[in-house]
Amino acid sequence: MTSFIKRRFLRFVLLSLASLLLAITAQSHADEWTLARDKDGIRVYTKPVAGSALNAVRGVTTVESSLGKLVTMIRDPSLRPRWDNFCGESYLIKQLSPEEELVYLHSKMPWPVSDRDMVNKVTWRQDPKSLVVTMHSVATRDLLAPVKGRVRVTQAVNDWQLTPLAGGGVEISTTVHLDPAGPLPSWLINSLSIESPYDVLKRLKALASDDSIKNQQLEFVRERSGERS
Questions:
Q1: Cα 46 to chain centroid, rounded
Q2: Residue 27 in contact with residue 49, Cβ under 8 Å?
Q3: In angstroms, rounded to a whole number, what is the distance separating the alpha carbons of residues 174 and 184?
Q4: Alpha-carbon distance 30 to 79, whole Å?
Q5: How far is CA 193 from CA 60, 132, 152, in A?
Q6: Phi, psi of 70 (to 5 degrees)
Q7: Is the pTM of this model over 0.90?
Q8: Alpha carbon 72 to chain centroid distance?
Q9: Which residues sit opposite 157 in a β-bridge?
Q10: Among candidates 124, 127, 107, which has minimal Cα distance to 70?
Q11: Could you give the maximum distance between any two Cα atoms of the chain, in Å?
């Protein structure tokens, strides 16, 4: 191999490595969450999502509650309007297993935006060692006839993670990303992306102190040893 060819080959290798490094760096920045609000013990983060005009949103806070009660509050459709200000209606369509269900959710939108609704397949799990409880909800298609006056959302993912803390209490983390199935005004997008998760977690923290809400003794949720439900 001549020195000229060697130099060309070396240059090609260096450019390739540089391009790969830039790609990895760009991806790592894309994977980072940006803090958008830190107030009342609630942190809200946003992150761009490739191929989507809307960011993913993540809310984090700590609540003094048992795991079972938090799962009950999040899982019970009749309680959802008490912590989700946009919820107009929610009900269980079908219980697929003790840990899986199909749930209908109707979200009220301020005039003149059309209301949205979705049918979610919801899956609950608890890690047997850490006792961390996770919920994964994904919007489905064609499982329920369209409802007049409501736009059906078919691309939406919502994850919850409930982590028991060694010093007591539970860290709640909720992450949402969806396609609203049509254009929304920027002021509403901003409200949904920052105000909504903040409001949801603030309401849940308050609801956790309501003694009228009882743990439903869910068979797939195990509390820390010695903790009351």
A1: 11
A2: no
A3: 22
A4: 35
A5: 14, 26, 19
A6: -65, -45
A7: no
A8: 17
A9: 138, 177
A10: 124
A11: 83
